[in-house]
Automatic annotation (TrEMBL):
PANTHER family found in the cross-reference section: PROSTAGLANDIN REDUCTASE, PROSTAGLANDIN REDUCTASE 1
Domain Enoyl reductase (ER): 56-346
Gene Ontology MF terms in the entry: oxidoreductase activity, acting on the CH-CH group of donors, NAD or NADP as acceptor
Superkingdom of the organism of origin: Eukaryota
Species: Cladophialophora chaetospira
Organism lineage: Eukaryota, Fungi, Dikarya, Ascomycota, Pezizomycotina
Entries under Pfam families matching the protein: ADH_N_2, ADH_zinc_N
Keywords linked to the UniProt accession: Oxidoreductase
Listed name of the protein: Enoyl reductase (ER) domain-containing protein
Length: 352
């Protein structure tokens, strides 16, 4: 047996997860010499994606949602884990290949049964494309941004777009596409380092730090004639401000509501006050999930364009990498608290 350190979902949080109580790091062991499961394979893992939706799966199993709750005492499920195949009993997955597994444990080594094979992607290394891009721009996050912006936001050159959590994984990609397509791009972020990043590195037209400036004042100042598209990662007060500032026939892309994810059971969520704008301004407000067919249909175009743009240097894949599984809890909470910039990733081992 070798050590197999894992990031464990230990007990149900009420509000913010508490390190060492709700989340722990434990050795769950791995037998290097054991045969892979029948029709399955084993991996040594390099990178694990963090994603705010993981918080939604740390819930009372009685609460229904679009993805199942995580199991107590087991490794935290990640949307995507990249590793190298150690041993395989599958005809389509070979030893030594780099693979990306879906809905997989945050652990140093994994044992995957036959059912995992059909959702596992073999990654063919491409020049100029870092492996971590497959967790971000070329992964689920990038699919979210690319598909929903085009399908629901329907951007046109000259449109004014407001993006919340603009320096995060989804926000940085929505913003870069919007800049590229000739929109007037405004970002809302939670600190000045992020503001600098979206303005200087990503080429946003303007932005504001919502912790320093009143949101309603900032949006009026930066979009005096109103907003055509609000790309909403956060919900809460900024959504209300956006509703009040939408132009006629504007579009709201409801991607997430991270401002509510760590509310305790007793907390009453922010109540939207400007709903009346929906009818008055004939707005379209649509939610989506990344695996919906109308979002996934953009995959081929996303893969081709984003790969090309990363390779020619015109698109940035910015990651916040937490080094080592011992620091997994810190990296996860850092994403939820807004301490991380770009796509949050846990690095377990150096790719060999
Ligand atoms: N619909 C889908 O299929 C789908 C798929 C993927 C992601 N999502 C959603 O998209 C959103 C962004 O995800 P991501 O992966 O790109 O995460 P992320 O932006 O990399 O990280 C989360 C960011 O949210 C901001 N934030 C956290 N708490 C906040 C609060 N109370 N108020 C305002 N902002 C807060 C922080 O940025 P600041 O420091 O700037 O506040 C933080 O960095 C999330 O809501 C997520 O659930 C939806």
């Amino acid at each position: 047996m070798v050590q197999n350190k894992a990031f464990i979902y230990k007990s149900l949080p009420n509000g913010w997860p508490v390190p060492d109580k709700n989340l722990t790091i434990e050795d769950i062991g791995f037998d290097e010499n054991a045969a892979p499961p029948k029709g399955g394979f084993t991996t040594k893992n390099y990178y694990v994606a963090y994603d705010p939706s993981q918080r939604g799966r740390m819930r009372d199993p009685a609460i229904q949602s679009y993805s199942p709750p995580m199991n107590l005492g087991e490794p935290v499920i990640s949307v995507s884990v990249i590793g190298k195949v150690l041993r395989s009993d599958s005809s389509s997955i070979k030893e030594g290949q780099i693979v990306m597994m879906q809905s997989s444990g945050s652990e140093s080594y994994s044992k995957k049964d036959e059912s995992a094979v059909k959702t596992t992607q073999i990654i063919e290394p491409k020049d100029g494309v870092p492996l971590t891009a497959y967790l971000g721009l070329l992964g689920m996050t990038g699919m979210t941004a690319y598909g929903s912006l085009h399908e629901i936001g329907k951007p046109k050159k000259g449109d004014v777009i407001l993006i919340s959590a603009a320096a995060g994984a989804v926000g940085q990609m929505v913003g870069q596409i919007a800049v590229r397509e000739g929109l007037h791009v405004i970002g809302s972020v939670g600190d000045d380092r992020k503001l600098d990043f979206i303005l200087k590195d990503l080429g946003f037209t303007s932005g504001f730090n919502y912790k320093k400036e009143n949101m309603a004042d900032a949006v009026k100042r930066l979009a005096p004639d109103g907003i055509d598209i609000f790309y909403d990662n956060v919900g809460g007060e900024l959504l209300d401000v956006a509703l009040a500032n939408m132009k006629l026939f504007g579009r709201i892309v409801a991607c997430g509501s991270i401002s509510t994810y760590n509310n305790a059971k007793e907390t009453t969520p922010y109540g939207v006050k400007n709903y009346g704008a929906m009818v008055r301004k004939r707005l379209t407000w649509q939610g989506f999930l990344v695996f919906d067919p109308n979002i996934v249909q953009w995959r081929k175009e996303r893969d081709e364009n984003i790969t090309k743009w990363i390779q020619d240097g015109s698109f940035k894949s910015i990651d916040h990498v937490t080094e080592g599984i011992d620091n997994a809890i810190e990296g996860f909470l850092g994403m939820l608290k807004g301490e991380n910039l770009g796509k949050s990733i846990l690095k377990i081992a150096d790719p060999e």
